[in-house]
Amino acid sequence: MRDQQGLATNSLKALLSSSALPGNEARILLAHVIETYYQLPRSALLSRDDMELNESAYQAWQQLEQRRMHGEPIAYILGKKGFHAIELMVAPGVLIPRPETELLVDIALDEIGRIKRSCQILDMGTGSGAIALAIASASAHSAIVATDQSSEALAIAKINAQNLHLDNRVQFFQGDWYEALTQHRQFDVIVSNPPYIANVDPHLTQGDLRFEPASALTDYASGLSCLETIISGANSHLLPGALLAVEHGFDQSDAVVCLMKDAGLHDIQVHLDLAGHKRAASARKMA
Ligand code: GLN
């Protein structure tokens, strides 16, 4: 079929201009289609914009477009998400890694660089494995323990570890926070991005969050209960002088700093995300 300008209605250019999706989303999904069906790079959206999709590619495009129109997150539609320097497989059983969470990776990597020997790292509530695997990928001499209470999440995290060839340095355990550890151990760095959204927060019923596992987003309470468990248990699981770093909500910084003080941690530091929000806090066990 041709439109009024004589352009084929299933050409890349016509599909992009007639899509009801925001331009950037339509381009991501159409790039995925031409990569899958024609092994063409994203740049072909411009360089070959008159190319017409064959029937099966066209149907695939329509399905992806429909899924996005129904609100499904792009990362679940594509089945992958870039995070720090790695790409992760994601599916509805795990939280989609957020750019602001890269902050925790950078805090951990700074500390690992400072220690200058092989480090033992603990990532609790690992989900897709994002934090643990990004750390392992960027620091060749660290060994990571990653936990999650969800077997579905751990299955995905383990696939990611294998895909990234990091399964020899990342060990996974199932369970709640420190209870997941099968033996008592102390770490050089503990990191966690726990569920910290309060159960009454309206964001839980909006946008991408509607499709993500609720247990990865909310503690079904004030938002602070998991952070409290993690912070209060840190002293007994950190080596002397070692570092804890947690992500928290944009309005939870003061509460998290208080929890860290109450837990007897020191050198408490507040970290800003790229949007300028107080998004993470770190503290040390006394040396
Ligand atoms: N940062 C996520 C969000 O606001 C929440 C993730 C979490 O609770 N750890 O969508």
Description:
The strands form two sheets. The protein has a seven-stranded mixed sheet with strand order 5-4-3-6-7-9-8, sandwiched between helices. The chain has a two-stranded antiparallel ribbon with strand order 1-2. It is elongated and about 75 Å long. The protein has helices at residues 12-18, 23-38, 44-47, 55-69, 74-78, 102-115, 130-138, 151-163, 214-217, 225-232, 234-237, 253-262, and strands spanning 80-83, 86-89, 120-124, 143-148, 170-174, 187-192, 238-247, 266-272, 278-284. With 287 residues, the protein is an alpha/beta fold. Helix 8 (151-163) links the parallel strand 4 and strand 5 (170-174). It folds into two domains: 12-70, no CATH class; 93-284, Rossmann fold (3-Layer(aba) Sandwich). The chain is built from twelve helices and nine strands. The model has no long low-confidence stretch (mean pLDDT 96). It binds glutamine (GLN). Glutamine binds next to loops.
